[in-house]
Amino acid sequence: MTMNVLGFAAHSAKDALAPYAFERRDPRSDDVVIEILYCGVCHSDLHQVRNDWGGSSYPIVPGHEIIGRVVSVGPEVNRFKQGDHVGIGCMVDSCHHCSSCESGLEQYCEEGATFTYNSLDRHDHSPTYGGYSEKIVVSDKFVLKIPDGVELKGAAPLLCAGITTWSPLRHWNIGKGSKVAVIGLGGLGHMALKLAKGLGAEITLFTRSPEKEQDARRLGADKVVLSTDEEQMKAVKREFQLIIDTVPYAHDLNPYMPSLAIDGTLVLVGYLGALDKMLNSVPLIMGRKSVAGSVIGGIQETQELLDFCGEHGITSDIEVIKIQDINEAYKRMLKSDVKYRFVIDMASLKE
Ligand code: NAP
Ligand code: ZN
User: Fold this and answer.
1) Per DSSP, what are the bridge partners of residue 22?
2) What is the pTM of this model?
3) Going along the chain, which residue ranges are E strands?
4) Neighbours of 145 (CB within 10 A)
5) Closest residue to atom 36 of ligand 1, CA basis
6) Contact at 8 Å (CB) between 44 and 140?
7) What is the three-class DSSP state of 138?
8) pLDDT, tens digit, for every residue of 127-171?
9) Is the CB of 251 under 6 A from ligand 1?
C-alpha cells in the first residue's frame, strides 16, 4: 500500500519543474507522516535538477528545507504527536552503526546517508522525493523539533543553509572575540552572518556585489570587503581564524589566503569539484593555514542549531513564493538575486 502525493518535479536536466503526482510508502512503525507547510529553495536543488554534480535520477522532486505538521505517527514513535511542528533537512536515514553515525555525524555515514531526495530508501530501495510536495514520510530519528514561538516559514532555511554554516562555526570553536569571514551573500552566506553574530564573533563579508553592503551590515557584518577590489582585499591581511566559502561555482581561492591568520582555515561549503585556479601552497605552508570542506551537520547538531535559533530569535530573511513560481525563482538564484532565501508556501500546491 502507498499514499498518493502531489508535488513538483523535473523530468530531465533541461526541463522546467512541473506538477507531478507520485506515491510515498505507507508509514512503517518508526515513521512520522508530515504535512508540508513550507519548503526552502537551496542552490543545491538547482544543481541537482540540472545534474551539475552528475548522478541525478529523474524525476527529481527537490527540497530539503522542510517545515511541516505531524499528521500521524507509527506505534514505535514517542517523541512526536499529531499537530507538532517539525523539520526535515537534507537526510532522512543513515546506517546507524558506523563510527560516524555513532558519533552523531550521520552526514559522514560510512555507508552513505540517505538523502531527502535523489537517493534510494535503504529498506525498500524506492526513490526518495523531497519537500516540493504536500506530504513526506520520515523515520522519527531524522525528524527535528521546531521550538515554540519560532516563525515557521523563516525557520525552513535553518534545515540546510543554517546547519551547513553552523556546523563549521561550531567545529572551529567560533565564539566571542573570534574573527570570521564569509564569502558570498546568498542563502548560506546570510545565515552564516546571523549565526556567527549570534555566537559573538566579529564578522566580515566578502562579496562581488557592492549593492549588498547595507543588507550585509543589517544581517550582522561588521565589515564588507568587495572581493573584486585589490586595495580592499589587501586591507584584511592575516585577519581571520575562519573563512566560510559559500560560492557555488569554481572560483579562485588564492586571493583569500592572505586574509587568513596563522593557523586559519578556509572551509569550502559551496563548491563541489576541482579548484580553478590551482591553489598555491606557499601561503598555506608559510602560515600553517588550511583549506577544508564540510557538508551539512548531524541530526543532534541540527537540533542544537534550531534550539539556539529559538533562544536567540534567529530565522532566515525570506521571500515567500508559490510553487508555480519555482522556475522563475531558479532564474533569479542564478543571477545571485535572492533576498536571501526563497521559501515555498506549500498551500499553493492546491491552487
Ligand atoms: P545562493 O543563495 O545562490 O548564494 C550563493 C552566493 O555566492 C551568491 O549570492 C553570490 O554572492 C555568490 N556567488 C554566486 N556565484 C558566484 C561566482 N561565480 N563567483 C563568486 N561568487 C559567486 O546559494 P546557496 O543556497 O547559499 O548555496 C551556495 C552553495 O552551497 C551551493 O553550491 C550549494 O549547492 C552549496 N551547499 C552546500 C551544502 C553543504 O552541506 N556543503 C549545503 C547547502 C548548500 P555575492 O553576490 O555576495 O557575491
Ligand atoms: Zn541545501
Assistant:
1) 5
2) 0.98
3) 2-9, 18-25, 31-41, 66-73, 85-88, 91-93, 114-115, 135-139, 144-145, 179-183, 202-207, 223-226, 240-245, 260-268, 290-293, 318-321, 341-345
4) 15
5) 270
6) no
7) strand
8) 999 999 999 999 999 999 999 999 999 999 999 999 999 999 999
9) yes
